[in-house]
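User: Second chain of the day. Same drill as before.
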Amino acid sequence: MLNLENNFDVIVIGAGHAGVEAALVAARTNKKTILFTMDLDKIVNLACNPAMGGIAKGQIIREIDALGGEIGKNTDKSMISFNMINISKGVAVHSPRAQCDKNLYHVEMKKILEKQENLTIKQDEITNIKIKNDKIEGVYSKTKIFYRAKAVIITTGTFLNGRVYIGDISFSAGRIGEFASNDLAECIKKLGFKTKRLKTGTPFRILKKSVNFEKLEKYCGDEKINSFSFQTNSSTLKNKDCCYITYTNTKTHKVIRNNLHKSPLYSGKITGIGPRYCPSIEDKVVRFPNMKRHQIFLEPLSLNSDELYCNGISSSLPEKVQTEFLHTIDGLENAIISRIGYAIEYDFYEPTQLKLTLETKLIKNLYFAGQINGTTGYEEAAAQGFIAGINASLKLDKKAPFILKRNEAYIGVLIDDLVTKGVLDPYRMFTSRAEYRLLLRNDNVDERLLKYGYKFGLIPKNLYDEYLRYRKTVNAIKIELENIKEKGISEAHKIRKDFKYYDWIKKIDQNKFNIFKKNKKTYWDKDLIFNAVNIEIKYLGYINRQIEDVKKMEKLEQKKIPENIDFNKIIGLLTETKKKLIEIKPRTLGQASRISGVNPNDIVLLNIYLKK
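Assistant: Same format as last time:
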């Protein structure tokens, strides 16, 4: 007889950023969901940097928020300080970043999970999964309890066969002080998935009372704070603490060079590939021998903690060596290490084994999301969790999958890159990865994606209606400006040949516009409205150019490739090209054109074959 309490629509394994977004979206779309974690007190643990957002990552948080996810709201709740990155550059690369309270972030997210209808959270280890006829049936816990499920989403982060390294010491762990998930790793490997190893690391934490702040440079948040969630009132957000900056020096580098043989990175103990864009201090010293110093940000872990995170100096050298080079740094001569830095190596599965929905090609209704797919970063993980969760829910409802295009969202770029190109090292999102980044701005996220959140029932009607009023206001202002321009800007051109339209916009008294005279109650901040107007006019030519590029690519994206196509029958394709097409199984000609090693001639041959 079935135990109905153990029957679920969706099971999520792992309660990091990917897991909580997957579980919440599944539950919010009326699926009976259970979220498993090995420690309820470590839910969305900010295990590394206690900050959210940054270059392209800030856009991803806002995209998840517009779709109906939780990460943006939780970032606002736990914000310590805020900065808009790249503000001196073009608007396409403006990216929000927030220093967060590590403890508050966990507490607030745990509350949301506990209160969510249709969702159970449980502390237990999942060690095995049951498959029947290449389709998921359920999972087994460490205590041999079976949980039946229609869909399973695995979001295990660095825990699969995780191993910590500090100098010549190494031990099994998912994170330092936490058990690794070895049984589940072996289970997945036996199913036939291609398994590889990656490496990441974290720096030591130090105590504030041991730091000489007089020698450090203070770095505080921006005066103007932008919320990550469109549902948060930005005026309620405050900067509550500052960060500090110091630098390594030639003495620091000498200590590290003299002890490189003690580093597991250089002794050969670690075989996994580390993050290219976030190297350890050992890597920095070796790869950039002419650099006399490297910047370090000292960031508060929590308003209720005396600990500082030493951003930019991750290390897996022995503890004595870490202490020795730490004391060569200005302001840190007497710093006390509260938590030692370490490296961790773990299993991941080549993401080319996934569909664009993040469902595995090998097992039906089994999804992977987060670092298990070779990514690094809270934001990238959360995005994958949301996409896996919504697609699992849609598939159970027999509805069309949700796939974001590369011109719609950084999330679309992220998943297309993973599934189509795979990864050679931990994947991190940058604005440079998006060919249409002017269309994927931080300021227009709601315009791009809010319609989807509303469609899935994740954004309430009253909030969506409020957004529509905002867009109506922006469009009305643009029409009024066109009328004013005819009278005002022509006169200005007679005086100054270099007069620019968008400079002129800034000088206009906002209160003169009819839209505000007619509507005494405004639903959005005027500065926000005029910022949108300014950007849409200033960059209109460039935006239109990218839209034309998108239309050209759409022709390839609209040409579907049947699932049952036999690529071996296409005459003229190289054997290597056929292998890649068979492995990736692209859905469209556009996706096929982005596969590494597939050239334009291959696409021509494939197109001709499809026409026949």
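The CA atoms of residues 100 and 369 lie 23 Å apart.

User: Great, on to the next one.
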